[in-house]
């Protein structure tokens, strides 16, 4: 989230799209209701009429996988009706920047941008560039009228997305589109704010990243980034997803979103050179230019501090990615099923249910030599070997199950969607022989280190040189009980030697007060630069619980701690004009008064933009402004509608390029039969999507083992419209078989008007929906909806496309 949960109540318009917040994030929804009580309008856009829709002022249906078309129509509407916030765009975005004249767009190239290589399924981005002066600074047109400026190119690109065209793609009635666009577009003036609440309904598509990019463009056009009640706000599906991502859950990042080193970056100096963004613009803060300080301090936290600059502080001990290597989720199981991976830790996860194309995942597990599952309860992954269509006698995978504690049985921090790191205390002791995760990790560390010392092995220093100072060490040098506060302090970081900074002496062993004090000479450590300031000499900031709200806009600066440096709203210097005056004087986030900023922690402490010696407002980007035009995306600097891999229509109505042109096609790229896809195939004529229910959590490992919750939602179901049910001879409560080209599940039919047919390209399109919280280890509940979903991922992140795929449904004979 750029903003935070409480800030939702400051919005004048709330769009919930790609999410069913009332059901899946019910606590957050109270802030939506508070906003509505103050006059805010709630817009719900969803293939299904949900509990969120029932509370909305306006509901608009759309076919799954057509979000870019829907939002692209909104961009067209905003520009054509001059609803955009011109002054905001001129100050804080690259709307004024001039683009390379050789750049071409999908309207000219049948759905492609310039530079596409069909053989490599990849773009040469050389034309996706700015015109620059002799000093390398982008040329601009402040009037935003030059045909090569970003705004005019955006206008040209999305002019193709008329209400009529969008309706024909999405199935959304034209009058609903216009009404949504009008209400949301009304916030492009000073004093009004709109926010977006989205979740996996946007991300789990082959164009998931571009779904969010499209909405970010809308927010920038309207001036809704950095302000109270605005932002682009992801509703994380678990209370610590944000925290786990911050601390490098994903393969391509280290803690604090530092890039994972590549194998050919063979020294710390080369890592810094290759990964640090550069700019020649003196007005750009280019905050990532501090990367050398953050990576060096990370190394000092990770490894033995006896390692010196001559040792690159242990940089050679970090794992590296081979050139071109993709170690994302889909790729791991693709390699596993081919026998390339022999060991697997399934820690706090259940991929046999949660993984897309779950039959492929389950078959992949049979190719392992060993697997360790770390969880609260038995689950479909731990017991895959005795599941449906498995013969235990033919499976050699050795499985170890380690029971661990639930969140309320251990102490530590979680970081929620709004970036608030909150300390939680242990409520009860772990049950039975289950252990805190840190106990398991501690034992694993010491036993592996001892094996290296006693038996040797390849590359031992990556383990034996780790820093491991998380509690009292006994006479044998071992820590028996991990002090979780010591871990939190290491994440914050220490001064490793006496250091004078800005005239003040900081002593060795003191906690670093904030990331502005981190150094690249080895004198500081920090396990995650973003969390530097979370646990300082004043104590554990994450444990604070003051309810003071001095600004009155719900920042609550002394409740927990928020990264970075307790800033509650990101990009908040965009919430003011060039003189530091808030766009919204009734709900100011920051303001300039008496020579300093007041309110929230400013996004960089420089003076207002009208004053000399300042820096631009988007401090993390090399150009210093928000990117409406972004060459960082793999499939184009502007979003474009492409159909899902599996869809019910023969062609993309926008162009001759049907699917995202840069996605990895597993089946056609030498994949297995299990990777095949079935688009516009009459065997699977219906669109399907998956979702959650309030009563179950993730794949249901916890909640299916809670009898009263299982009683409330007892088994797999499929929702379908009365029209489709009539066509198929299905009545409410019938047992049905839902099938795709990859598998099938049995489900109870719920015939409901929550789903209605769509009219797309003159054809009636039906859609069904299934929850993904069930699995075979719980008797009589059915199995995972992910047995139906394809092996295909987003063009940037590789997140699987589980929200739009093709199925058939039949009444069980």
How far apart are the first and last residues' alpha carbons, in Å?
A: 48 Å
- Count of helical stretches: 21
Main-sheet strand order equals 23-25-24-29-22-28
List low-pLDDT spans. Answer: none
Describe this structure in words.
- By secondary structure, the chain is α/β, with parallel strands linked by helices.
- The protein has four domains: 5-237, Dimethylsulfoxide Reductase, domain 2, CATH 3.40.228.10; 252-323 and 494-531, no CATH class; 329-456, Rossmann fold (3-Layer(aba) Sandwich), CATH 3.40.50; 673-811, Barwin-like endoglucanases, CATH 2.40.40.20.
- The chain is built from 21 helices and 29 strands.
- Helix 4 (67-80) packs across helix 8.
List keywords for this structure.
813 residues, alpha/beta, Dimethylsulfoxide Reductase, domain 2, Rossmann fold, 4 domains, six-stranded mixed sheet, five-stranded parallel sheet, 29 strands, globular
Helix-strand layout with pairing:
Elements: E1 13-17, H1 21-24, H2 29-37, E2 41-45, H3 51-55, E3 58-60, H4 67-80, H5 86-92, E4 116-117, E5 122-123, H6 150-158, H7 163-170, H8 174-185, E6 194-198, H9 200-203, H10 208-222, E7 232-234, H11 241-246, E8 253-254, E9 258-259, H12 268-275, H13 291-302, H14 329-337, E10 343-347, H15 351-354, H16 358-365, E11 370-375, E12 398-403, E13 412-415, E14 420-424, H17 437-455, H18 461-464, H19 484-492, E15 499-501, E16 504-506, E17 535-536, E18 539-540, E19 561-562, E20 590-593, E21 596-599, E22 686-691, H20 707-712, E23 717-720, H21 722-728, E24 735-739, E25 744-751, E26 758-760, E27 763-765, E28 767-771, E29 805-811
Parallel strand pairs: 1-2, 1-6, 2-3, 6-7, 10-11, 11-12, 22-28, 23-25
Antiparallel strand pairs: 4-5, 8-9, 13-14, 14-19, 15-16, 17-18, 20-21, 22-29, 24-25, 24-29, 26-27
Helix pairs in contact: 4-7, 4-8, 4-10, 14-16
